[in-house]
Design a protein that fits this description.
eight-stranded mixed β-sheet, globular
C-alpha cells in the first residue's frame, strides 16, 4: 500500500509529521508531498528511503488568498503523480488538497487535525485588519468548512486537549476520531553527549520553542533578571526562532545580556547536546484561548525525557501532568516574581530537582513516548485497510 503524505508547511520543521512519516514507512510505501513557498529547495530528495517531493508555485499576487488556487493546483498535480492508495493530510490546507484528490480517485483519506483551525484562523484575522467581531465571523466560517470537510475523511487524527474539547468537537461530525499525542521519539535523541564537553556552555536554564510574547518570553527574561539580582549564577539558553524585534535592547535594560544565549532552531541531534547541560526547563505559555486548553506540550515532554525538572504554566492540562507525575513546579506564567522564585528554589535544591527530573523521565518511559503512539497509528491504518477490503 502506498501513502501520499500531504503537508503544506516545511516538512523538516514539523516534528509530528516526521514522526508519523517514519512510523508509517515501517509498514507502507511513503511519498511525502511538501509545498515549498520559497522556491529555493530542490524538487526531490530521499531521506531514510522516503521520497520527498517539493511542489513549487510562483507568488503572483500580493495577498495570500489570491495565490491559494495556484498552490492547491500545484500540490494536486504532485499528489496525482504519486499514484497513492491513501492520502494522509497534515493540516487544514492539506485536507483541501486531499479532498480534491479523493473526489477524482476515490482513495482513502486520513486527516491529521493537529491544531484548532477555527481558532487559529480567527486569531490571525483579529491580529491584523479584522476586528474582534470579524474574527468571530471568521471562526464560524472556518468551523463550517471544517465540519463539511470532515465528512470526506475516512479517519481523523487529533491532539489531546484539556477536557477533550477538540476531540469532542470533531466527534460531532465524524465517528472515527483518534488522539495521537505529541510526544518525543527517544530514537531522535540518541546522541546524548553533552555539548559542554565540546564548548564552554554555561547555561543552566533552557527554553525550547518560539521566542514570542505569547510564549512568555518577557516574563522569562524579567525572572532571569530577578534571579541574577540575588547573586545566583543563572544563565539561560533560548532555543528557537526569535519573533521579537530589538530583543537585545530589552536584555540590556534588564542587565542580562551576558546571561542569555540564542541558538536559533536546532535539529534533535544538536538540541540534545544542550539539553544534557540544563538544570531547569521552562514551559510558560501565556493565558490565551488555546494555551488554556492545552493538555500537553511537546517541549514539556522533551524536558522530561532528559530528566530536567520543569517550571510550567498552572493551566489545567499542564497541571494534570505535572501534579500526576510530580516532575516540576507550576506557576502563574504572567508573574515574573513567581517564576524567579521557582527558578531559585530548583537551583538551590539540586537533590529535589534531580528527583523531579527522574519522575519526569519515568513518566516518559511508561506513558508519554512515541513508541506507544506509533503502535496506535499502525493499528488505525490496519483497521482502515481491513474496512476498505470489506467494501
Amino acid at each position: 500500500m502506498k501513502i501520499c503524505f500531504i503537508i503544506c508547511r516545511k516538512y523538516d520543521d514539523s516534528p509530528r509529521a516526521i514522526r508519523e512519516v517514519n512510523s508509517l514507512a515501517k509498514h507502507f510505501d511513503l511519498h511525502v508531498i511538501e509545498f515549498d513557498k520559497t522556491g529555493n529547495l530542490q524538487n526531490k530528495k530521499v531521506v531514510n528511503n522516503i521520497q520527498i517531493t517539493r511542489a513549487h508555485a510562483k507568488r503572483l499576487f500580493a495577498f495570500n488568498f489570491l495565490n491559494a488556487p495556484i498552490v492547491l493546483l500545484t500540490l494536486l498535480r504532485s499528489v496525482f503523480r504519486s499514484q497513492a492508495d491513501a492520502y494522509h493530510c497534515f493540516g487544514f490546507i492539506g485536507l483541501i488538497v486531499g479532498i480534491l484528490a479523493k473526489i477524482f480517485t476515490g482513495k482513502m483519506l486520513i486527516f491529521d487535525a493537529y491544531e484548532d483551525y477555527p481558532y487559529q484562523f480567527s486569531k490571525n484575522a483579529s491580529n491584523k485588519i479584522f476586528s474582534r467581531i470579524k474574527a468571530s465571523v471568521m471562526w464560524n466560517i472556518v468551523y463550517a468548512f471544517e465540519s463539511l470537510f470532515l465528512h470526506f475523511a475516512d479517519c481523523v487524527l487529533t491532539v489531546p486537549s484539556y477536557g477533550d474539547v477538540l476531540l469532542k468537537r470533531l466527534q460531532i461530525h465524524h465517528k472515527f476520531v483518534f488522539v495521537i499525542w505529541n510526544v518525543p521519539n527517544p530514537d531522535f535523541f540518541e546522541n546524548k553527549k553533552s555539548i559542554s564537553q565540546q564548548k564552554n556552555v554555561k547555561s543552566n536554564i533552557i527554553y525550547v520553542g518560539g521566542i514570542a510574547k505569547n510564549r512568555g518570553i518577557f516574563e522569562i527574561l524579567t525572572a532571569i533578571s530577578l534571579v541574577k539580582k540575588q547573586r545566583i549564577n543563572v544563565n539561560i539558553l533560548l532555543v528557537g526562532t526569535n519573533e521579537i524585534n530589538n530583543i537585545e535592547k530589552y536584555l540590556k535594560e534588564l542587565d542580562i545580556l551576558e546571561n542569555v544565549t540564542f541558538t536559533g532552531s536546532l535539529p534533535p541531534d544538536k538540541l540534545n547536546q544542550y539539553l544534557t547541560c540544563a538544570k531547569v526547563g521552562l514551559t510558560l505559555y501565556q493565558p490565551t484561548y488555546w494555551h488554556l486548553r492545552t493538555k500537553a506540550s511537546e517541549k514539556l515532554f522533551i524536558y522530561m525525557l532528559f530528566s530536567i525538572p520543569v517550571i510550567a504554566s498552572n493551566f489545567p492540562g499542564l497541571s494534570e501532568i505535572i501534579n500526576t507525575h510530580n516532575c516540576g513546579i507550576l506557576v502563574n506564567p504572567s508573574d515574573s516574581k513567581e517564576i524567579a522564585k521557582a527558578i531559585t528554589y530548583l537551583l538551590k535544591n539540586p537533590s529535589i530537582s534531580q528527583n523531579l527530573g527522574k519522575n519526569g523521565k519515568k513518566a516518559i518511559e511508561n506513558k508519554y513516548n512515541w513508541k506507544i503512539e506509533e503502535k496506535k497509528l499502525a493499528q488505525i491504518y490496519k483497521g482502515l485497510i481491513f474496512n476498505e477490503k470489506r467494501k
